[in-house]
Amino acid sequence: MLQVKARMPKAKRPLTHLTFDKFSNLLERIVADPFSKLEGYIVNGNLVETKDINWLKCFLATRTTKNGLRSLVEGDSFRVHQKIYSSITNARKLSPGTSCNLCLTENLLYCPTKGLCSHFRNCKYHNSAQKQFRPCPSQICDAFWKEIGFFHRYGKPSWKNTKADQWCTNHWQVAKCFMPLDGYQDVSSFDDTDFNGIINFMINCTESQRSLSFNIANQPNALLEARNIVRSIRHSPDLMVTDDYLASFFSTLNLLLTDSKYLASDSSAKEAVIKLNQLEKDANRTPAEYVREYLQEVRETKKVITLELLQFCKATVKFHSSH
Ligand SMILES: [Zn+2]
Ligand SMILES: [Zn+2]
After folding, report:
1. What is the domain partition of the chain in residue ranges?
2. How far is the CA of 226 from the centre of ligand 1 (A)?
3. CB proximity list for 307: less than 8 A, separation 6 or greater
4. What distance in angstroms lies between residue 144's CA and the mean position of ligand 1's atoms?
5. Protein residues with C-beta less than 5 angstroms from the ion ligand 2
6. Pick the residue with more confidence: 103 or 58?
7. What local confidence, expressed as pLDDT, does residue 33 receive?
């Protein structure tokens, strides 16, 4: 954090009352502090203006939307895993249940692999004798590697995220290949994964096309719009969100959650739509109540939120150092 502050010139600090420094301070407390103290700090502190509440609403709406996508993404990721696994066991005539847990992701990737490692002689990725490229002894994992590539819309799975020794048994290790390159190495379930990981799985894994009414390859579409609008909040230089922006934020997420092919009749998506509606319309709650709800989320998913906040801070620093 000290380093982060040092990189940000004084004159360029945002002139909102919740400055980047204060936000960093909150982040430090979230990481280090017992939550009881933090709550008092925020509630009695500066997070009380409407525009801050709008930001908190966007934050909560993003979490709600992620939960609304649960059964679609769990279903699609499970199905893609099953398809790959059974196509391999069928092709190799292996008995059902045959698996390999001996191959590390490093073992399955050539050195150098573009985007991952570049120096064959002194590779930081293939950095021990156990991590050198070699074929799978059961001829399963290298076939998995190939199949995952076929299911990736752009043919570029994020190998850095995944643990190949769990491919045969854990569908989420396969799902993570379709998520962005940074920040997903340590997540192991839907609950651990943030909205950005979930939405990128849907965009990048061709299996999701079966669950959506529109063609994901055609732009713009509800999926890309949802990713963009959430990204713009995460990357915004301050925490100010106008009422107009808030309205388009909610309508964009709503559009995705009510897609006719699957989500419109799915119970977790329907529940999320109701919650979004309440969140948007609710004028009776005090700012402190919003903050409490936010903190409740922080408590429940401490790890994920911390990760989201860290990404947010990183993006903010980038913004300020390039302007
Ligand atoms: Zn290498
Ligand atoms: Zn293997």
Report:
1. 83-208
2. 36
3. 183, 194
4. 19
5. 100, 103, 136, 141
6. 103
7. 42
Nearest of 50, 33, 36 to residue 287 by alpha carbon = 50
pLDDT for residue 214 is more than 60 = yes
Q: How many CB atoms lie within 10 A of CB 236?
A: 18
- In three state form, how does the secondary structure of 71-111 look? HHHHHHHHHHHHHHHHHHHHHCCCCCCCCCCCCCHHHHCCC
User: CA-CA distance, 22 to 233, in Å (whole number)?
Assistant: 18
Instruction: Give the ligand with the smallest distance to the CA of 121.
Output: 1
> Residue 37: is its pLDDT beyond 90?
no
Residue 52 pLDDT > 90: no
Mean pLDDT of the chain: 81
Give the residue-averaged pLDDT of 14-20. 46
**Centroid of ligand 2 to alpha carbon of 124 (angstroms):** 22
Q: Determine the distance separating the centroid of ligand 1 and the alpha carbon of 133, expressed in angstroms.
A: 8
Q: How far is the CA of 121 from the centre of ligand 1 (A)?
A: 8
Strand partners for 152: 205
**Residue 178 pLDDT greater than 80, yes or no:** yes
